[in-house]
Amino acid sequence: MSMAGLEAFAHDFEVTNNGATLYYNYNDGSTGSSVSVTFHGSGTTHVYNIMHYSGTIVIPSEVTYNGKTYNVTKIGKHAFSNGQHITSITIPDGVTSIDEEAFEACTSLTSITIPDGVTIIGSEAFMNCSKLKTITIPNSVTSIGYQAFYFCESVTKIKCMAVTPPRCDIRTFGSIDYTTCRLQVPKESIEAYRNAEYWKKFTIVEDLSADKGDINGDATISMADANLVVNYYLATNKPSDFNIDAADINGDGIITMADANLIVNMFLNEGK
What's the mean per-residue pLDDT of the chain? Predict the structure, then answer.
């Protein structure tokens, strides 16, 4: 039978959630329990992403299709590559791997937080994300692929929660300025990173808590930082770009006047 005129799509099904249509492949057939996010298109075409995605993309932790609910466990190859108008990506808990080139050339993306549970970041997964400034890597990651963050020359800070330095490649972080980019790791692992292959190229290796209290990012703690916390606490519409990690001094997951008071104490005790 002739296949002329028929398209072989890269995805098994599509679902629209919060106004955005995402595309999925079954991991173990339709009778399985999990799916991967993939790209739209026929054959291996992923150029569609350029115009299809923009703004904030929230990947759900589960998706329902034909009456059955599947867990989202993987971001597949080329899923969002060339998504040049994507400014923010939320990856859900439950995802265990990010495949090669999944977010390649998402040139408007400025930060990425990879959720705990991800163990593998594939080759070229975030390559050429040229505006990417901050990267957060969870404790669960054990391997970061070839050129995963290559041509991400705007990166100024990498927070790696992993106690054991993940395996990486000589070009994993190629194009990042190793002399100025701040690598923040668990306090007990600082020496391990300073001696680990490839990680030891970073000049600045510091404790994960190094940013606590420095809300405005000027590398000092002052009353200005405390005032920013107070303003955030009182604001009805909370600014989306507020540095919550730096402001949550007591680590309770919320920003309150208690955090502002702690910053004041940090400022008053600085240098004593």
Answer: 89
Q: Give the angle subtended at the CA of 129 by the CAs of 123 and 135, to the nearest 5°.
A: 80
Q: Which residues contact residue 88 at a Cβ distance below 8 angstroms, ignoring those fewer than 6 apart?
A: 55, 56, 57, 109, 110, 111
Closest CA to 17 of 54, 53, 60: 60
pLDDT, residue 1, reads: 36
**10, 23 Cβ separation under 8 angstroms:** yes
Predicted confidence (pLDDT) per residue in 22-42, tens digit: 999 999 988 999 999 998 865
Amino acid at 66: N
Q: Are 114 and 92 in contact (CB under 8 A)?
A: no
What b/e sequence results for 104-135 when a residue is b if at least 16 CB atoms lie within 10 Å of its CB, and e otherwise?
A: bbbbbbebbbbbebbebbbbbbbbbbbebebb
How high is the pLDDT of residue 160? 96
C-alpha–C-alpha distance, residues 36 and 56, integer Å: 19
pTM score of the predicted model: 0.78
Cα separation, 113 vs 131, whole angstroms: 15
| CA–CA dist 152, 130 (Å, integer) | 5
Rounded CA-CA distance 147/123 in Å is 6
